[in-house]
Specification:
By secondary structure, the protein is an alpha+beta fold. The protein has one domain (7-187). Helix content is 29%, strand content 25%. It has five helices and seven strands; from the N terminus they run ααβαβββαβββα. It has a seven-stranded antiparallel beta sheet with strand order 1-7-6-5-2-4-3, with helices on both faces. β6 (159-163) and β7 form a beta hairpin. 31% of the residues are buried.
Length: 195
């Protein structure tokens, strides 16, 4: 069970961990690149799984890195970004069908400089990270059916963000990035910028 935490407290924790950086993965990556690490879901940096065996590899990798970063049975802030033409104060439909019983509330609204004509509304829910519990969300993201998902540990501030092709990890210290880069070296991109 997660303790009751107000939105103001959650926003303050975000600021403690990430300062004024926005809670949107591709924007956060640009702001704290020295604490960012990307892993790929499949061998040879294959983007999409096509077979049951590839889905097993994908889920194993995601659950391994997410649990390393978030911990096990850890209270987390689940942030979900959705683009819209204006700021929204209420959510009219379930934001993630995979989490029908979870209640989301608006965390913040901001302009994404890469999409200046749109607002990105970032919704949040409190969840407990447990390996394999969120496999349906990981698969939906991996298949390109979901996006802008970010799990943040309320204990450490470290974050895991799946995308269709891998996962972005946001760490509290650059030394931790170096440690995990070594630990997960087999799953890293060969791209010079780590993409």
């Amino acid at each position: 069970m997660i303790e009751s935490v107000s939105m103001k407290e959650l926003q303050q924790r975000w600021k403690t961990f990430y300062g004024s950086a926005p809670p949107v993965t591709h924007l956060l990556r640009d702001v704290i690149s020295d604490r960012w690490l990307r892993i790929h879901s499949l061998p040879e940096s294959k983007r999409y799984a096509e077979t049951p065996d590839e889905y097993l590899i994908l889920l194993e990798r995601h659950n391994t890195v997410a649990t390393e970063v978030l911990g096990s049975q850890t209270p987390c802030l689940l942030l979900v970004g959705r683009y819209a033409e204006h700021s929204e104060v209420d959510i009219h439909s379930q934001i993630l069908p995979q989490l029908e019983s979870v209640r989301f509330a608006l965390f913040t609204s901001l302009i994404d400089p890469t999409e200046p004509d749109l607002i990105i509304n970032v919704w949040y829910a409190l969840v407990v990270w447990s390996s394999n519990q969120f496999d349906n969300i990981i698969k939906a993201v991996a298949d390109g059916n979901e996006a802008n998902i970010l799990f943040v540990s309320l204990e450490t501030g470290e974050a895991y963000a799946p995308y269709d092709g891998g996962a972005d990890l946001f760490l509290i210290f650059s030394e931790r990035q170096s440690q995990l880069k070594q630990q997960f070296r087999q799953w890293l991109s060969k791209h010079p910028q780590g993409l």
